[in-house]
Amino acid sequence: MEQLCIVTTGGTIDKIYFDDKSDFQVGEPQIGRILEELGVAFRYSVIPIIRKDSLHITDEDRELIRATIAAQDARHVLVTHGTDSMVQTAQVLSTLTDRTIVLTGALNPARFRGSDAEFNIGTAVGAVQSLPPGVYIAMNGRVWHPAKVRKNVAANRFEAAD
Amino acid sequence: MEQLCIVTTGGTIDKIYFDDKSDFQVGEPQIGRILEELGVAFRYSVIPIIRKDSLHITDEDRELIRATIAAQDARHVLVTHGTDSMVQTAQVLSTLTDRTIVLTGALNPARFRGSDAEFNIGTAVGAVQSLPPGVYIAMNGRVWHPAKVRKNVAANRFEAAD
Amino acid sequence: MEQLCIVTTGGTIDKIYFDDKSDFQVGEPQIGRILEELGVAFRYSVIPIIRKDSLHITDEDRELIRATIAAQDARHVLVTHGTDSMVQTAQVLSTLTDRTIVLTGALNPARFRGSDAEFNIGTAVGAVQSLPPGVYIAMNGRVWHPAKVRKNVAANRFEAAD
Amino acid sequence: MEQLCIVTTGGTIDKIYFDDKSDFQVGEPQIGRILEELGVAFRYSVIPIIRKDSLHITDEDRELIRATIAAQDARHVLVTHGTDSMVQTAQVLSTLTDRTIVLTGALNPARFRGSDAEFNIGTAVGAVQSLPPGVYIAMNGRVWHPAKVRKNVAANRFEAAD
């Protein structure tokens, strides 16, 4: 893996508490800081393309994400994304057949104790350098084909779709 | 991946502070607790075969690890191991060619703030379900062939060997 | 200090992320869990009287908090409260002159990495057993008289009032 | 409290893992970093006088600690110290009757998840600005007179002495 291209789109993984707003919103992408503190042994670049809760990601946004990735040289791409519409974005990206793209996110913000963010980023990093070209989702420690996974909202986890 | 077989051998990843001993030793394996708290979507079993700092792992220990894995049905195996002699153990396991085996560990104990343990376990989990049969090392966010990696002790990180 | 009476009212200290609501709200009081995990050497009881962001605490709520404390035997009381109107509640409690009451809270939720919650609870615990009867606020590592402190909202910290 | 003088002597609170030594030793004092990250509202200075496990603190060391404090102008002093001989050092400091001195430490290193360090530092900070001149120990959430407390080594906690 020559260089990992990371595209960030917002989502729970990047939610932080803004005390002056008495509210909890998507903040700066966390993945760059996390990988830097870990001292990872690969080169990477971060493109913070949008910063949205994925319930609010539109088809225009998905096309923007697709076009952004298509314009990059990197053959390995990691996308951080909200969990609510991650499957839909993965399906839109499926037209990009010449690189390995793994989407991940978190069910608890990276800034929260007990967050799944670092583990999920790790799963995606392990998968993206190991898989053949295609689009995949890494959540709950599994690597999924987008057509075969869904988020079970009530259970707050990803599971195999019929 | 039907079921992940996890073999634990000790190492820094499992070191904890024993206040009554005023010392810091390998304790109970952490990986089971970590995966349970994360709510991973795969079945796994944990075989805590030895509990040693890897500077003290002997050839007999390595043969025990190999024989333990060989006796399991699982085609996917994750081994947690100290970082100092991880490469040597990986080389001994290379005779097992019919399953995917990924070794990982941590440079800072799982119980420590800022530990690389969860990220490394994630990398190994993403890799083990994505790679063809063989033996691999997952450290510092990369997936390595054991013949092509070494631990740079002074720099406290894994890097490509010549 | 025979027994510490703890009254919880909500506030940022108890805010958690509800993924199914895609929102961040006051959850269960954290202080009981925190003190239990720390193994503190004093007896305490927790009265979770209300669960509100303190911007929404009313005069009726303040009277309820006052009456609740007045009805207890304990001479030492710790109140966890949102930071936005903590000073106002402290002023209402000033009519209770026969016990030591310390209010505290947090600028970052207890569940967040880097939260000030445990430190603030510690400051309040150290103060409540050391001070003469009266009402005090413990924030940012200082113990304040309610008439002489305010929250600087822009700076997100407590400071001496003129 | 005009300014808090902090004297650090080592102990479990400052123990960190040195991977290159495959060992766990007293490292740099943690309290300055902790107070800075918390944004406390008081001025303080840190005097890192010794860096020892308190089982190895000698009478000469205790005299050095006493003389160091005696030479300072500050009327409020916080000492971080190993828990094993904290009571002995507190007794030596009891000859300093003109200032408020609180000793604290931790049963788990500050760098460890679930450490009692921040809570204990908070307890000591709340106590040191609230108590009359004298020497005190703040552990397990209580403020103790040195003559009336001991460390129960087997139970790994502080308790009232007969």
From TrEMBL, chains A, B, C, D:
Q: Which SUPFAM superfamilies match?
A: Glutaminase/Asparaginase
Fetch the InterPro entries from UniProt.
Asp/glu_Ase-like_sf, Asparaginase/glutaminase-like, L-asparaginase_N, L-asparaginase_N_sf
Which of UniProt's keywords are assigned here?
A: Hydrolase
Q: What is its EC number?
A: 3.5.1.1
Q: Which Pfam families match?
A: Asparaginase (PF00710)
Q: Listed GO molecular functions?
A: asparaginase activity
Q: Identify the residues that the record assigns to the L-asparaginase N-terminal domain, covering every copy.
A: 4-155
**Superkingdom:** Bacteria
What is the protein name given in its UniProt record? Asparaginase domain-containing protein
Task: Specify the taxonomic lineage.
Answer: Bacteria, Pseudomonadati, Pseudomonadota, Gammaproteobacteria, Lysobacterales
